[in-house]
Amino acid sequence: MKHRGILAGAVLQSILVAFAVLSTLAAPQYSPDIPDVDPHKAFGSKNAPVTMEVFSDFQCPACKTLFTTTNRRLMEDYVSSGKVYLIHRDFPLPMHAHSRVAARYARAAAQLGKGESVEQALFQNQEKWEQNGDVDGTVAAVLSAAEMTKVRALAKGNSLDTAIDKDYALGQTYRVNQTPTTVFHCKGQIYPYSGVMTYDILKQFLEQLLAQK
Fold first, then answer.
1. Residue 136 sits in a domain of what CATH number?
2. Spatial CA neighbour of 114 closest among 86, 149, 79, 151
3. pLDDT digits (tens, 9 = 90+) for 141-193
4. Number of domain units in the chain
């Protein structure tokens, strides 16, 4: 048990060191202003001491893990309490044939207030629709016929592609090259992290940020 504690401490320390190094390298290049925030894909208070931008791809297995495990606890413990402002960013990877279509549908549903249920459906049924390409059917299963008609119409519009492209371009300025990548903002500093972080590690890192003077 003692050895496990030492190992966990060492892992946490290595992650924090990595964050510090990335922040030192990146901070001079990035503005603390956060552009192009879609209110339908942002959660919590804009005045929260920590902002998290999560760049994800609906066809990415690691993103599925993040959103089906860590995200709900993050919302309950930090976003709803005003400690974290959470922004979902679309970063559809070119290797994934259906991820951009999924992003369009999710954005369209978000405009109707159905973003969460559609995101959950897309991630939970990821293996199915990435094989058959039936994003439309996956979304239709959790919406009414009237809602689906509106979503289909919105998903065909160029404005959603423009918004997705802006997210992707922003990710490139952060040097995002894989999903998920989370960019933490706190007190003018930026801490990018690539990959899935367990909730326990995320919580410890957030507490470190929130404790900064």
1. 3.40.30.10
2. 151
3. 999 999 999 999 999 988 899 999 999 999 999 999 999 999 999 988 899 99
4. 1
Residue 7 has pLDDT above 70, yes or no: no
Q: Which are the contacts of 96, defined by CB distance < 8 A and separation ≥ 6?
A: 57, 59, 60, 130
> pTM here?
0.84
DSSP states along the chain = -HHHHHHHHHHHHHHHHHHHHHHHHHGGGS-S------GGGEES-TT-SEEEEEEE-TT-HHHHHIIIIIHHHHIIIIITTTSEEEEEEE---TT-TTHHHHHHHHHHHHHTT-HHHHHHHHHHTHHHHHHH--HHHHHHTTS-HHHHHHHHHHHTSHHHHHHHHHHHHHHHHTT--SSSEEEEEETTEEEEEES---HHHHHHHHHHHHT--
Q: For residue 62, what are the domain limits?
A: 2-210
At 45-71, the pLDDT tens digits run 999 999 999 999 999 999 999 999 999
Q: 84-123: per-residue pLDDT in tens?
A: 999 999 999 999 999 999 999 999 999 999 999 999 999 9
CB 166, CB 36: distance < 8 Å? yes
| CA-derived radius of gyration, the chain | 18
